[in-house]
Amino acid sequence: MMPTWIKNCATLFCFGLLTSGSISNQASAADIVAYPPGLKAQEGDVTRPPCKIKPQRAHRAKPANFKKECPSHEARHVADWVVDSRNNFSLPFVIVDKVDAKVFVFRPDGELRGAARVLIGLTRGDDSAPGIGDRKLSSISPEERTTPAGRFVASLGHNLQGSEILWVDYDTAISLHRVVTTNPRERRLQRLASPTTVDKRITYGCINVPGKFFNNVVRPAFAGTNGVVYILPETKSASELFGSYDPDP
Predict the structure, then answer these.
(1) What stretch of H or E contains 178?
(2) Per-residue pLDDT, 29
(3) Which DSSP helix (H) or strand (E) runs through 120?
(4) Residue 219, Cβ neighbours under 10 Å: how many?
(5) Alpha helices in the chain (DSSP H)
(6) Please, which residues bridge with residue 208 across strands?
(7) What is the Cα–Cα distance from 245 to 14, expressed in whole angstroms?
(8) What pLDDT does 226 receive?
(9) With 164 labelled, which of 24, 41, 135, 212 sits at a CA distance of 20 to 30 A?
(10) Percent residues over pLDDT 90 in the chain
(11) Is residue 102 scored above 80 in pLDDT?
(12) Type and span of the H or E element at 201
C-alpha cells in the first residue's frame, strides 16, 4: 500500500501538469505566429492564415473641367493630359482646336474660364514658313498662311500698332488677338458667327477671337503671368506632336 504522502505528491504533480498544459495552450492560441516561407512551425505552435490585402482602387485622373462645352476628342484628350501631367507648370493654359475652329481658356487647375469661336490661318498646315516672322504681310503667299501647331509659352504684349495681344510665338509673329475688322470685304465678324469651320480660314496665321472674349477671358487669365498655349495639329495626332497620353483610358 502506497503511503499517503506519496499519493498527495502525485496528485499535486498531475494537477500541476494539467494547469501548465492549459496555460500553454491558452498562450499559444493568443500568440498566433505566422512563419515566413521555408521556416517550419514547431510542435505546439499555431500558424496564422495568410492576410487578405484589400486591393487598392485604380488611379482615376482628374479630368479637365469643360463645364457645359462639348469639345472634340483631341481637345479633351490634350486638356486631360495637361491636367494629369501638369505640363502647364501651374500656369493658365489655352487650347486652340484648328479643326473645330475653337479656343478654350483654362485656369491652372484645368477649370474652364471660357470658350469661343476663332478665325485661323487661311491654309491648312501645322508649320510656319522659315523666316516668316521677319517678312511683310504682302510678301506672304496664300499657301504660307498657316497657323502653326505646337506648345508655346505665351504672354500679353502689344503689336506695332500698340494694340494689346497675346504673343503666342514671337519668332513667327503668331499672336492671339481681337478680331480685325479693318477690311470689310473679309467679313470677319460674320465668319466668326458662322457655324461652318471653312468660314474660319481667313488670317495670315494669327488667331482672332471676339473682342469681348479677349477682354473678359484672355486678358484676366494672363494678367501678370505667362501661360501655355497648345495649338492642336491637323495633319498629325496630338499624341504624336505633344507626347500626350490618355490619363484614364
Answers:
(1) strand 174-178
(2) 40
(3) strand 120-121
(4) 13
(5) 4-30, 73-85, 188-193, 211-213, 219-222, 238-242
(6) 119, 177
(7) 76
(8) 98
(9) 135
(10) 74
(11) yes
(12) strand 201-203
Q: How far is CA 70 from CA 3, 74, 176, in A?
A: 103, 12, 22
Contact 158, 175 (CB under 8 A): no
* Per-residue cell: 182: 479693318
Q: Do residues 95 and 75 touch, judged by C-beta distance below 8 A?
A: yes
Pairing relationship of beta strands 207-209 and 164-169 according to DSSP bridges: unpaired
- Distance separating alpha carbons of residues 113 and 46, to the nearest angstrom: 64
Are the beta carbons of 88 and 94 closer than 8 angstroms?
A: no
Burial 13-51 (b: 16+ CB within 10 A, else e): eeeeeeeeeeeeeeeeeeeeeeeeeeeeeeeeeeeeeee
| Sign of the dihedral through C-alpha 78, 83, 85, 89 | positive
Which grid cell sits at 116?
469661343
Task: Please tell me the predicted confidence (pLDDT) of residue 248.
Answer: 80
Q: Given CA atoms 24, 25, 27, 31 in this order, what sign does their dihedral have?
A: positive
Domain 73-242 class, CATH top level: mainly beta
Q: What is the pLDDT of residues 153-180, one digit of tens each?
A: 999 999 999 999 999 999 999 999 999 9
Joined grid coordinates for residue 131: 523666316
Give the bridge partners for 115, in sequence order: 104
